[in-house]
Design brief:
The complex is a heterodimer of chains A (113) and B (109).
Chain A: E1 5-7, E2 10-13, E3 19-24, E4 31-38, E5 42-50, E6 53-57, E7 64-68, E8 74-78, E9 87-94, E10 103-104, E11 108-112
Parallel strand pairs in A: 2-11
Antiparallel strand pairs in A: 1-3, 3-8, 4-5, 4-9, 5-6, 7-8, 9-10, 9-11
Chain B: E1 4-7, E2 10-14, E3 19-25, E4 29-37, E5 43-49, E6 52-56, E7 59-64, E8 69-74, E9 83-91, E10 98-99, E11 103-108
Parallel strand pairs in B: 2-11
Antiparallel strand pairs in B: 1-3, 3-8, 4-5, 4-9, 6-7, 7-8, 9-10, 9-11
The chains are: A mainly beta (113), B mainly beta (109).
Chain lengths: 113, 109
């Protein structure tokens, strides 16, 4: 079966712009969570969506937002990009909220210049 | 202080060696995960543990709930095992992970 699909794989943006990343979960998975990975901070949790509602949020500024659609696909948006937002953004899906059978996507590598 | 600590940060081994990566956590958990990340970024979930021991091929993961400690063992290591191994804790409250900083493993032929 198809895995978690993240698009695009690579992205270059300039400071001040905004960006939208997409995550399509495994068919039947209803929970999607997002993570940021940087060399300095490692992996950090951004937020988790279930049934089109944000259920939990990590310690990130309001510039980071997301949403989930009725087909469980999720988008993450970062506004007013900063150089420090350059990172690998990963999403993971699981069948239910709090179900720890997570499957990760390959990530979107965002570079802010 | 990080909720999850991993050691060592870097590890180089000869092919065939037995490898151990350690993870300690300070929060109450409902599950402990071991993840593998290859160059290029893709992450694979190796194990999810809440007690005892699990084995998959040459990989073995153990957890001691009382000591808040988990280990990942690789037997008969192979160059294709070269990757970053990340320990992640799912706390009792909330639905998020706390991640260790990862162990970068290089297995030399």
């Amino acid at each position: 079966k198809a895995g978690v699909t993240q698009t695009p794989r690579y992205l270059i943006k300039t400071r001040g712009q905004q960006v939208t990343l997409s995550c399509s979960p495994i068919s039947g998975h209803r929970s999607v969570s997002w993570y940021q990975q940087t060399p300095g901070q490692g992996l950090q949790f951004l937020f988790e969506y279930f049934s089109e509602t944000q259920r939990n949020k990590g310690n990130f500024p309001g510039r980071f937002s997301g949403r989930q659609f009725s087909n469980s696909r999720s988008e993450m948006n970062v506004s007013t990009l900063e150089l420090g937002d350059s990172a690998l953004y990963l999403c993971a899906s699981s069948p239910q909220l709090g179900d720890y059978g997570y499957t990760f996507g390959s990530g979107t590598r965002l570079t802010v210049v | 202080k990080n909720e999850v600590e991993q050691s060592p940060q870097n590890l180089t081994a000869q092919e065939g060696e037995f490898i151990t990566i350690n993870c300690s956590y300070s929060v109450g958990i409902s599950a402990l995960h071991w993840l593998q990340q290859h160059p290029g970024g893709g992450i694979v979930s190796l194990f999810m543990l809440s007690s005892g021991k699990k084995k998959h091929g040459r990989l073995i993961a153990t957890i001691n709930i009382q000591e808040k400690h988990s280990s990942l063992h690789i037997t008969a290591s192979h160059p294709r095992d070269s990757a970053v191994y990340i320990c992640a804790a799912s706390p009792n409250t909330g639905n998020q992970f706390y991640f260790g900083t990862g162990t970068s493993l290089t297995v030399i032929p």
